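User: I'm new to structure prediction. If I give you an amino acid sequence, what do you actually give back? Let's try with this one:
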Amino acid sequence: AAAESWTFDVCSNVYARMRPAREPVLFEASHLVYDGDSGVTIATDGRTTWAYDLGANTWTQMSAPPAAADPAAPSLAFDPVSGVVIAAFGRELWSYDFGTDLWTLISGAPWPGPAVLAYDTSVDRIVADAGSETWLYDMRSGTWSRGTDPTFCAWGMAMMVPEVVVYDEAAKRTVVSCGTRAAYDATADRWEFMSDIPGSFPSSMAFDIVNERLVGIGEIQDGVVAFDLQTREQIILLEPVGGQAAP
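Assistant: Good question. You get back a string of structure tokens that encode the predicted 3D arrangement of the chain. For your 247 residues, that looks like this:
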């Protein structure tokens, strides 16, 4: 079945069903990332690739991920300097250029994948958290460096790969969730538990550049929530509807 396209206004806290003429058919474990260079949202489930233009309210099917890549839904990050999307397929790192509609294998020694990715503006690196180790990739030099502080998922969590990853541009931390939650300060190579923030992290999050906070769809009891890492404040933006997170 085709996916449904919704937007959430972070200022009015209102959902809107977009109803484009065509919507992608994606597996449930699909991932999204905003391509700030091209102004479109890229979606892939590891088998197909789609691009959504909010202004035109259109989805366009793009080139499929390479057959050589792991078919599982990849973790995605956008590199604003090179203007390409970075995707972690298993132990491999690929880039996707929307302008040319090309997937390219990134050379260099792989990390102990699979991993979740985020682009960290404070150090101009792709942060890859594999659950047992943290790696940083320099897109400019094509080199990897390994973090020295053990990732929090390896601290009694059976080295689980984090479920959620997002970069908070205001706090300058890569935030991950793996049964609990923590933030990585790449400038200091240090992980920090965030047990002092109440509630549970959403199953998916994005950085709200307008209000400088993290926003996402929470668990059933949380609806849509916002987290301010600098003040350690949680705000419920939208209460659940009928016992479930809206829409």
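You can read the tokens as a compact description of the fold. Here is one thing that stands out. The radius of gyration is 17 Å.
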